[in-house]
Amino acid sequence: MDYSGSKTVIIFQSKYGSTRRYAQWLAEMTKGDVFSINDFDGVRLKHYQTVIFGSSTHMGKIKSIDFIKRYWSILQDKTVIVFATSGTPSVGSKEKEIIEKNLPHAARGRVVCFPLPGAYSYHQLDWKDKLLMNGPRWKLLFQWYFTKDPEAFKNLRNFYIPQDWTNKDALKPLLTFLNTKRKE
Ligand SMILES: Cc1cc2nc3c(=O)[nH]c(=O)nc-3n(C[C@H](O)[C@H](O)[C@H](O)COP(=O)(O)O)c2cc1C
Asked: Which residues, judged by CB distance below 6 Å to any ligand atom, belong to the binding site of ligand 1?
């Protein structure tokens, strides 16, 4: 494969598909190359000027973020963007902070981070993830049982309803940043 003409690469990690969806949209919009992290050899990074890494938030961590650390010596001279999907419809500064905190030290302040609303379906989770989600589920159950707070009941009920907040519009801030960089 010849990468010499390609300037942007999107590398993603996705277990249930929402991060993959954003990566594919980005590939269409930027005319970039797109790879799952499992199929990408980091030495190929040198062929690109812009590297977009996408992953998901998992128990307050960004999955596979070590990729940035491992290849920082190649990445440090490039435009590097990280996006992370979340299990929440409205992402903001709190979610951005989580991504930034997960970055390796050398990359902090040098990588631009964009949180994106992801998708969540309890019934699709594998047994390990279901087990991990037991903590928040019990917390909601106790909250509702002891306070009879209708909000807790609503959240508990929503826990089992599949949600998909992925949408192309959420990529606008990232694309605006990318266009500014390309004009520089
Ligand atoms: C076990 C588990 C833990 C999660 N932890 C968080 C979290 O700490 N913060 C958050 O915003 N979303 C969390 N999520 C939601 C995922 O980030 C969200 O579902 C994301 O869209 C999944 O990406 P994927 O579809 O590409 O796998 C969690 C999901 C699972 C299954």
From this structure: 14-19, 56-60, 85-88, 118-120, 125, 129, 132-133
